[in-house]
Amino acid sequence: MADDLGIGDLGCYGNDTLSAGIPVSTVLTGMFVCGLLRTPNIDRLAEEGVKLTQHLAAAPVCTPSRSSFLTGRHSFRSGMEADDGYRVLQWNGGSGGLPANETTFARILQQQGYATGLIGKWHQGVNCESRTDHCHHPLNHGFDYFYGMPFTLVNDCRPGGSPELDAVTRARLRLYTQMAALGVLTVAVGKTCGLISVSWKVVLGAAGLVFLFFVTWYASFGFVRRWNCILMRNHDVTEQPMVLETTAGRMLHEAVSYIERNKHRPFLLFVSLLHVHIPLATTKHFLGKSQHGLYGDNVEEMDWLVGEILKAVEVNGLKNTTFTYFTSDHGGHLEARDEHGQLGGWNGIFRGGKGMGGWEGGIRVPGIFRWPGVLPAGRVMHEPTSLMDVFPTVVQLGGGDVPQDRVIDGRSLVPLLRGTAEHSAHEFLFHYCGKYLHAARWHEKDSGRLWKVHYMTPRFHPEGAGACYDRRLCPCSGDGVTQHSPPLLFDLSRDPSEARPLSPGSEPRYHVVVARVGEAVKQHRRTLSPVPPQFSLSNIIWKPWLQPCCGTFPLCACRQDGDPSET
What we know:
Elements: H1 11-14, H2 16-19, H3 24-27, H4 40-47, E1 50-56, H5 62-71, H6 105-111, E2 115-121, E3 145-149, H7 167-192, H8 200-221, H9 224-228, E4 231-233, E5 236-239, H10 244-261, E6 267-272, H11 293-315, E7 324-327, E8 337-338, E9 341-342, H12 360-363, E10 364-370, E11 379-386, H13 390-397, H14 414-418, E12 428-433, E13 436-444, E14 449-458, E15 481-491, H15 510-525, H16 537-540, E16 551-552, E17 555-556
Parallel strand pairs: 1-11, 2-3, 2-6
Antiparallel strand pairs: 1-10, 3-4, 4-5, 7-10, 8-9, 12-13, 13-14, 14-15, 16-17
Helix pairs in contact: 7-8, 10-11
C-alpha cells in the first residue's frame, strides 16, 4: 500500500482514460503527461495480473482509510472518524486508535496458522492508558511481527522542515504566548517606571503563568520529530528520532528478510510504504532522476522498492503460490506544495484529491492483483470495488470465516477476479468525509450505467481551482462545503471526470435515479450505531505518560537497534 499516491502517477493507469472516451488533449492537461513517470515494476505487476479501474478508498485520508482496509468496515463503525476537527490521529502519545474489539484480516489469518507481518506505516494508534499497554499496536491486532513507523511521515520528521502537524493550532499558541509575554513585559516596565500601581508578586505570578502555558504546549509541539518520527520493532522503539535517509533501505531489508524467514509456511505480509507522503524522503540514488522533481523521484524510488520485494518473492520460488496486491490508501495530495511547485500526486482526469470524500480524485486508487495460474494475466475490470473488499477476499483465501456479529461493508473479490462473476457485488457504495456522507454511487447493472449523487462538495479556493489551496486539506462540513438540494447527479460511465452535472432537462431519469439512491442511503443509515469516538479531543491530545520512548522519558533518544545515541 502506497501513501498519498495519485492514480495518474502510474504508467499502467495513465492511458485508462482513453478507453473511457476522454479526448487525448484532456489526458495531457494534468501536472504530468501520461507515461513520463517510470513505474515499470508496478506496470509489470498489472500486466501479469488483474487491474481494477474503479477501485475506491473508503475514506480520503490516512487513518480512517487504513482502518477500513484492515477491518472491511467503514471507519465510523469503529469510531475512527471525526465529526469535525481532527480527521487523523495526531500523536503516538495519544490514546485514540483502532479498538481492540475490531477484527483485522491479519487476526483471522493468524488464527488459520499464517505468519502475519507488517512492515512500514501503521497510524492506527499505540497506547490507551500506559506507555507499554500497546492496546492499539499491530501486535494486538493480529500481526505477529511489526517493523516500522507507528505514526506517519510529516514535514516535521525532516530536520528544519516547515511545521505540518496541527500547524494552525501551533501558530495560534505561539501568538498567544507572545501576546501574553508582551503584556507581562509591559506591566513590568510600567511598574518599574512608576506608571502602574501593582505588586511585584502579581507581575511575577503572571510571568509564571505565561511560562507554564508555554511549557505546556511546547513540550509536545516543540518536539514533534522526537515524539512522532520513530521506528519500532515489535514492542520496542529502535530509532528515536528516525533518520529519513536510511529508512527506505531498512524497510526493504525487513520486507525481504520476512519473506525469506517464512517462505516454507503460509504467510501474510502487509508492506505499508512511507512513499509518497511528504516530506518525500528520497535516497541519493533517485534524486534528480525523474522528469517531475522530488515527487517524481519519490514515485520512481517507490516503484523500485516494489520491484525488489517482487524479486524476493520470485527468487524464493513463491511467485506462483503468492497472492499479491498493490494499492494506495487514497488519492494524491493536491494542496501539497512548496516554493518550487507541486509536492503531491496527479489523480488523472478525476476531480479532486486527498481529503475530498466525494470527488473521484480523492478516493479512486490503483487496484492490482496477481496470482499466476489462477488469475488471468492482463485482465482489466471496470466494476466498482472498494479497499474494504480486501478483508473478505483475504479471509476467504486464507480459509477463515468473515465475522457474523458485525456489519461488514466489504465483499469478496474472488469471484470477480477469477472470472466466475461478471459484476461487482456492490450495487451501492457510500462515500464519507469524516462522519458526513458526501456522495453515493449506484451501479445499475442491467443498463451498465454508473450513477453518482453528491450531497455535499468542498468549496475550492481560489474559486474555480481544483483544490482548497488556502488550507492543507478541504474540510468536510461547515462553511467550507456546499450542500446541494437537489443533489448533483453524474453518470460516471459517460463522464468519469464529473465535469457535467445532469439535470431533469438533460437526463429524463434524473428524479428516478436520485430517489433510488436516496432510498439506498436511508437503508444504509439504518445499519449505523453509536460507538466511542477515537478522534475526540481527549483521545487526540498528546499525553506524556503514553509516549513511546527508548531510554528514560523525557530523554528519549536511540539509534537503530536500541543503542543509546550521544545526542
